[in-house]
């Protein structure tokens, strides 16, 4: 955590000064013209808003049809990759403190001897070194709260405009503000028009923004129904505080998810495929009806609700749109995007929906910011749909397979899925459900893998996997990946080989050479790390790295006061046995440099000598500034 | 973190429900009669207030002469033991996130060859396994903020009454509210009288409460002066982000403390003994004068202030009062107490003042609550002065020695202290400065050490030293010591030996026997863990502990809804190599039980069979309730 760069201010250090003492949420006037209009205050919309709120030069507004923030229910699973993203927003601490941690997942199957169910095993939920963070569970409403607070703390102090309903939009690509949006103000009961450079529909499965750009969800027509309830239980089921996948012999199946606070539990009760004939019956089910189904599954155990906090019957099909913007496959640069449930719908069984939605937004946010800040060309925006659409397709395919396995009859002798098979599939797909299996394909943003062999564990196209290092300036053990904040900057990690002088020389070139990407792409009055943030990792102990001998780029003077930033340089000789060079497959002899995108995905791995390739890469994604 | 025990509520889970949506700080009417009146909103006063705010049956008020909360300056060192205490208040996470971590301390001495100063070494600041928390640094004002927030979140939503000046008090031990206090309302410019059962003076070195009970500070008459400044520095000093003890050949010495946020630094510049003759000169020194002294010490390096955030010249003598209440050594039960700087003053060199002050308050808080709630006899209150006075004396003795060493000429050949000697002394006293060397002497609260040999690493009279364990109900690795919250409860840790049945039997006896301390000392309608909170640690893996087979005491049903608390039982087979049984010197064969006070100090260690001794101990500190 760094702050006070531009001078000390009393009070909450993560609250920007001009906001200090200002607590109420007022509804400011909506301007006629905005840079970005976000439709919908779900997880995708709020991540996008939290990202854009950090740029005072960008005018962002986020609108929501409902009259206020979400209070209850909906999603609750937070994958490791999402916690990593929350860390970049400065929100991981409170999330980890409040949330339930999924440590092991229990599997329950029919007990052939005694009848009822029996535990067949527990598996470690997250493999060792999959992420520095655990898989956690917390109410979606709290996720919204965290993101809303992040927006409030930001330089623009953005807050949502509630009771504003999206109705329609038109696009005129030749206009300064190409998108004209018609809204309905529910408070004034009056129509409202706003013009935007970009509109992002984060307005859910029934997205009106999606319809307005003529995109449709495609996929299965069969709908699957679930009874979902958050209860404070009274039960003798012994794994009530473990995530449990429970299959009964003939009463159906349950996914049980312990929740934050030590008492609350969520049950997903499978109500099967919904037909036109059964729909009315299924949707008439009460919480008591669903709990009765759960009790039949749980035999010989029983469960009752001391309090039912939230209950819903929902049905879902596996569907995905053909593209995530208004122009993909049609020609022209996009001005309207969709994200989250507006693009993909599927079951809740793998806990993926909220996570993939937020990663959609994290992918799009920095790209919109880069274009609006004049750092990148607007062609960059094409990569949103081309990168995220395949991810949604993978998700749908996974969900189809996993849901079928969970719903199938439990006895493999009768064509169903056995407990071992289910557990094995779960473990094998752990990287996927943790959100760290995402790998973007070759594109302007994901470079060829010429030097991948120098860092085999930092795979190009995947998220930069953190590892513990020691900060040279203060000897503190930190996570290298946490140097990256959700601030729209590119990161260039320099891993020193045996010859440290190579890093020093590269830093001097980066600072001085007219062809250096930092010189070329950093605006005149900006700090030297404003566009590309360079971090160096040395193999020597931090005590042996002489601070005074470091190049200026690694001790940059920044901000209004020209203060020195001491947090650019790290040492990989940690107290932990696991060494980053070994854990990430780095070549100790030659070292390398790793280019990481603002959303923390690895764009390329290069040799420390590959200056031309580095310059060329950044030329392809950033505009010259001088 | 446990919550929702009495039902779910939306919003911030650590904010009590009735407070939800209530943001402003109003000045409520001060009642004529209160249980506890705390004078002074420093660290001691606020810890006491935060502790008492958790008891809705106790009427507490805290007053402060100044018009509002502290904004800047004063103390900044937070010892490991203090972070442990903050954890019990639910405040450690944000503190750790914001604060500077003291990882190593650097020592600088005169360079005999080149002149100026040179680094003689860096030492690890906190020994391995001294605490689960680091030694950190953060502005005292932030410490106040955390505690104020804790008060606001509590059931009583306590907030300070500012602009109220303490003037005088009288005590009539026979009255219901024995202490009559005269205040002056600075806002109304009018006197005010309030009656209290207990008054606690946390009103600093010039304490008027202390004077009103006829106590005086005794000690050295020689005052030592320091120039203290928080600056945003521009410097070439390479250890600017390490805590550094810097002794120059003849220009004096500095203690340099990096501060939170990565840029801010505090300098303590030694200005020597103050005589009547020199006082005027010393106090006329400006920030520039003090920085000039610092620059002479730092040669060949230099430092300037891009911004001076806070500056003060202060002088201090090593002094301590003869007792911490109104009756010690005089007869009768105490009604007026003093804590913190009101009791002890000393240099800032060892970073002890704020920490010892807060520990004073943590010692007193639960005792006042126990007496006011009718759980303990008021004779318990005698132990505050008898326990904390010796701690203050130890502190003064340490400070005298350490300050003298720091101030002495650096060359041992000329009678001063050598760099090695200084470093060695610093390391040897690491337990003391971390706040974990405190050991309360034999008293009703600190029992004889008959079974100390069963847990050699959990020394009777010292704080309960946490260790990592696995929670049985959800397989999560947690710190055993973090089960203890600042809630006034006693903790009884049952460490199972090879025969687990002993623990089960003991639990049944604790639940059912008329002579059980839980049966005897828990009020009728209270939860079973309301006075004595039992936690069990088994040596088997958590996967091998059958939840359904646990005794009722380890799965107690609590609260309005009768929900089951699943967080009482732990397993000591952790993924970490260090095992609690080994690390804390526990006897694996026989096990033991450890009684821990509400302020986390170990009262006694007993064999699991020692039921009579257990009952006897609690009879000596708790009143019968039925």
Walk me through the structure.
The structure is a homodimer of 626-residue chains. Chain A is α+β, with helices and mostly antiparallel strands and 626 residues long. In chain A, the strands form six sheets. A seven-stranded mixed sheet of chain A has the order 6-5-13-14-15-12-16, sandwiched between helices. At the A-B interface, helix 3, helix 4, strand 12, strand 16 and strand 25 of A face helix 3, helix 4, strand 12, strand 16 and strand 25 of B.
Tell me the layout of helices and strands.
2 copies of one chain form a homodimer.
Chain A: E1 33-39, H1 43-52, E2 60-63, E3 77-78, H2 80-88, H3 92-98, E4 100-102, E5 104-110, E6 117-124, E7 135-137, H4 140-153, E8 164-171, E9 179-185, E10 190-201, H5 208-212, E11 217-219, E12 223-235, E13 243-247, E14 253-258, E15 265-274, H6 279-283, H7 287-298, E16 303-316, E17 319-321, E18 336-338, E19 344-345, H8 353-372, H9 382-407, H10 419-428, H11 430-433, E20 468-471, E21 477-479, E22 490-495, H12 501-512, H13 517-521, E23 532-538, E24 557-558, E25 563-564, E26 569-571, H14 580-583, E27 592-596, E28 602-606, H15 611-621
Parallel strand pairs in A: 1-2, 1-10, 5-13, 10-18, 22-23, 23-26
Antiparallel strand pairs in A: 3-7, 4-7, 5-6, 8-9, 9-10, 11-17, 12-15, 12-16, 13-14, 14-15, 17-19, 20-21, 20-26, 22-27, 24-25, 27-28
Helix pairs in contact in A: 1-4, 1-8, 2-3, 8-9
């Amino acid at each position: 955590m760094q702050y006070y760069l531009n001078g000390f201010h009393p009070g909450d250090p993560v609250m920007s000064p001009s906001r200090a003492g200002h607590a109420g949420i007022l509804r400011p006037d909506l301007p006629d013209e905005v840079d970005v209009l976000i439709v919908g205050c779900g997880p995708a919309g709020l991540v996008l808003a939290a990202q854009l709120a950090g740029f005072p030069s960008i005018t962002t507004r986020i609108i929501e049809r409902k009259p206020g923030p979400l209070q209850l229910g909906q999603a609750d699973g937070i994958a490791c990759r999402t916690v990593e993203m929350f860390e970049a927003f400065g929100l991981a601490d409170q999330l980890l403190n409040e949330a339930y941690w999924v440590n092991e997942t229990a599997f329950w199957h029919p007990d052939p001897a005694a009848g009822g169910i029996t535990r067949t095993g527990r598996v470690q939920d997250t493999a060792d070194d999959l992420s520095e963070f655990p898989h956690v569970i917390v109410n979606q409403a709290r996720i919204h709260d965290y993101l809303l607070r992040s927006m409030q703390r930001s330089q623009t102090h953005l807050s949502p405009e509630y009771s504003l309903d999206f109705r329609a939009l038109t696009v005129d690509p030749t206009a300064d503000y190409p998108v004209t949006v018609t809204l309905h103000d529910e408070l004034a009961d009056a129509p409202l028009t706003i013009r935007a450079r970009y509109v992002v529909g984060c307005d859910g499965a029934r997205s009106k923004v999606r319809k307005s750009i003529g995109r449709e969800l495609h996929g299965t027509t069969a709908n699957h129904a679930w009874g979902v309830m958050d209860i404070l239980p009274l039960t003798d089921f012994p794994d009530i505080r473990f995530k449990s996948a429970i299959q009964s012999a003939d009463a159906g199946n349950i996914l049980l998810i312990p929740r934050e606070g030590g008492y609350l539990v969520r049950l997903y009760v499978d109500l099967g495929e919904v037909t036109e004939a059964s729909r009315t019956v299924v949707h008439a089910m009460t919480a008591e009806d669903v709990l009765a189904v759960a009790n039949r599954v749980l035999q010989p155990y029983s469960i009752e609700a001391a309090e039912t906090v939230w209950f819903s019957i929902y049905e879902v099909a596996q569907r995905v749109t053909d593209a995530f913007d208004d122009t993909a496959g049609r020609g022209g640069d996009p001005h309207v995007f969709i994200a989250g449930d507006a693009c993909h719908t599927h079951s809740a069984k793998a806990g993926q929906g909220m996570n993939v939605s937020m990663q959609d937004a994290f992918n799009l946010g920095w790209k919109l910011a880069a274009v609006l800040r004049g750092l990148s060309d607007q062609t960059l925006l094409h990569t949103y749909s081309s990168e995220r659409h395949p991810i949604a397709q993978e998700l749908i395919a996974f969900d189809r397979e996993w849901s079928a396995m969970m719903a199938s009859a439990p006895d493999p002798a009768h064509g169903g899925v056995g407990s071992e098979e289910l557990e094995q599939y779960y473990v094998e797909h752990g990287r996927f459900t943790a959100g760290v299996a995402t790998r973007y394909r070759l594109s302007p943003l994901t470079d060829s893998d010429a030097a991948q062999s120098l860092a085999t564990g930092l795979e190009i196209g995947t998220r930069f996997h953190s590892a513990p290092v020691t900060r040279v300036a203060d000897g503190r053990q930190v996570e290298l990946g946490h140097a990256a904040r959700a601030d729209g900057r590119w990161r260039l990690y320099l891993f020193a080989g045996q010859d440290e002088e190579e890093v020093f020389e590269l830093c001097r070139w980066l600072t001085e050479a007219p062809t250096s990407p930092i010189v070329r792409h950093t605006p005149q009055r900006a700090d030297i790390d404003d566009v590309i943030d360079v971090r160096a990792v040395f193999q020597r102990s931090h005590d042996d790295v002489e601070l005074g001998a470091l190049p200026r780029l690694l001790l940059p003077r920044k901000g209004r006061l020209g203060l020195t930033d001491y947090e650019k340089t790290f040492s990989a000789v940690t107290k932990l046995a696991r060494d980053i060079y070994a854990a990430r497959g780095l070549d100790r002899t030659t070292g390398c440099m790793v280019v990481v995108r603002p959303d923390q995905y690895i764009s390329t791995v290069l040799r420390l000598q590959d200056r031309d390739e580095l310059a060329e890469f950044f030329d392809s994604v950033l505009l010259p500034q001088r």
